């Protein structure tokens, strides 16, 4: 089937538009909308009362299908070990202390992550892309010894692979070359991408902290009920994402993805004066409350990042008039100390 293309999409092949159109129709069908109506046609949208979490009528979370997908991610998380501490030291067979990454330090990784926050924000990529990039980057570095001059290349390729996996229209490879100031040419980026996939055995996807963070936020929306203030829920969501980006600067080698993600939500809820946890969160996430070690790691990571003046990507991203109160709430609660 050949689709007629408007002039604005003349450069896009016909076959590239078919999956996008299929997703457009499927999204409308799942939400009970007219698939032939445009997205901006409010007359085609039917307001439905709030349904219980994971019920078949809960079109916002696609009911049973969302629960099945989440259970799969939960099972994978239980079978996956946290990333190895490739920045630490270990004893080799001769009993000599050595490091997996002799040239990469905790500070170097923090600088790289801070730059990647700036890159994914400027490219307009989703938070899921950023979370998957962090996972790919750590999984690669725990297996391959990398010189310091190639650390930025690893970050670029990890973000590029994550964008291909998560985004509908990922940036072209030329943009990835340019964002690194053309330090690496296209053949080098492609060769590193091939090495990435080989090392990871082409296993790109998997649970990330954002998987469980979003699940917990979904439970918070239903816990609040119809009478809740949308602004309060928006503040909680934005603060959770901000805390996650701050905490991601530190290598989390002692927590699983689920523990990390739920600890972020717990810290964000506490910062806004809410109870850190509730029975609804336990029922929906099917996980116990995060322990004190997990929440303390998140607080400590936020404190470390905000105390370094050069790490300003997250601070600048949320330093606008609508989000400054959220940042002040984090500081006043004591998650981090004011510099």
Description:
The chain has 339 residues and is an all-alpha fold. The protein folds into 3 domains: 34 residues, no CATH class; 97 residues, Cyclin-like (Cyclin A, domain 1, Orthogonal Bundle); 125 residues. Helix content is 56%, strand content 2%. It has 14 helices and 2 strands, in the order ααββαααααααααααα. The chain has a two-stranded antiparallel ribbon. α3 runs antiparallel to α4 and α3 crosses α5. The N terminus and C terminus are likely disordered.
Termini Cα gap: 60 Å
> Which descriptor suits the 3D outline?
globular
Helix content: 55-70%
How many domains, in number, for the residues? 3
- Poorly predicted ranges: 1-50, 333-339
Q: SSE order, as H and E? A: HHEEHHHHHHHHHHHH
What is the gyration radius calculated from CA atoms? 21 Å
Summarize this structure as a short list of keywords or feature phrases.
mainly alpha; 3 domains; disordered N terminus; two-stranded antiparallel sheet; about 350 residues
Record the SSE blueprint.
Layout: H1 14-30, H2 63-79, E1 89-91, E2 97-99, H3 106-122, H4 127-141, H5 151-166, H6 173-179, H7 186-199, H8 209-224, H9 230-247, H10 257-271, H11 279-285, H12 292-306, H13 313-317, H14 324-333
Quick structural overview:
This protein has 339 residues and is mainly alpha-helical. It has helices at 14-30, 63-79, 106-122, 127-141, 151-166, 173-179, 186-199, 209-224, 230-247, 257-271, 279-285, 292-306, 313-317, 324-333, and strands at residues 89-91, 97-99.
């Amino acid at each position: 089937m050949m689709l007629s293309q408007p002039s604005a999409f003349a450069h896009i092949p016909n076959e590239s538009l078919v999956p996008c159109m299929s997703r457009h129709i499927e999204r409308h069908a799942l939400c009970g909308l007219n698939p032939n109506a445009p997205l901006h046609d409010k007359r085609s949208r039917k307001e439905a009362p709030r349904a219980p979490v994971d019920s078949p009528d809960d079109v916002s979370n696609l009911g049973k299908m969302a629960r099945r997908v989440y259970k799969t991610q939960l099972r994978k998380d239980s079978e996956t070990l946290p990333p190895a501490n490739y920045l630490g030291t270990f004893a080799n067979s001769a009993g000599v202390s050595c490091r997996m990454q002799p040239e990469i330090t905790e500070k170097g990784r923090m600088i790289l992550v801070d730059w990647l926050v700036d890159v994914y924000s400027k490219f307009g990529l989703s938070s899921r892309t950023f979370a998957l990039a962090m996972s790919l980057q750590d999984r690669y570095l725990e297996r391959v010894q990398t010189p310091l001059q190639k650390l930025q290349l690893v970050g670029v390729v990890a973000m590029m692979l994550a964008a291909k996996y998560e985004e509908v229209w990922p940036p072209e490879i030329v943009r990835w070359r340019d964002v690194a100031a053309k330090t690496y040419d296209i053949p080098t980026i492609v060769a590193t991408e091939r090495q990435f996939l080989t090392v990871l055995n082409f296993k790109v996807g998997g649970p990330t902290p954002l998987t469980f963070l979003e699940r917990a936020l979904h439970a918070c929306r239903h816990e609040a009920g119809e009478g809740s203030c949308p602004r309060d829920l928006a503040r909680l969501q934005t603060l959770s994402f901000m805390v996650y980006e701050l905490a991601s600067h530190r290598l989390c080698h002692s927590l699983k993805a689920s523990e990390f993600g739920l600890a972020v939500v717990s810290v964000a809820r506490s910062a806004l004066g809410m109870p850190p946890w509730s029975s609804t969160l336990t029922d929906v996430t099917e996980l116990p409350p995060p322990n004190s070690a997990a929440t303390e790691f998140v607080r400590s990571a936020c404190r470390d990042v905000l105390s370094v003046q050069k790490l300003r990507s997250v601070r600048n991203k949320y330093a606008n008039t609508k989000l400054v109160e959220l940042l002040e709430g984090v500081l006043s609660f004591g998650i981090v100390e004011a510099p």
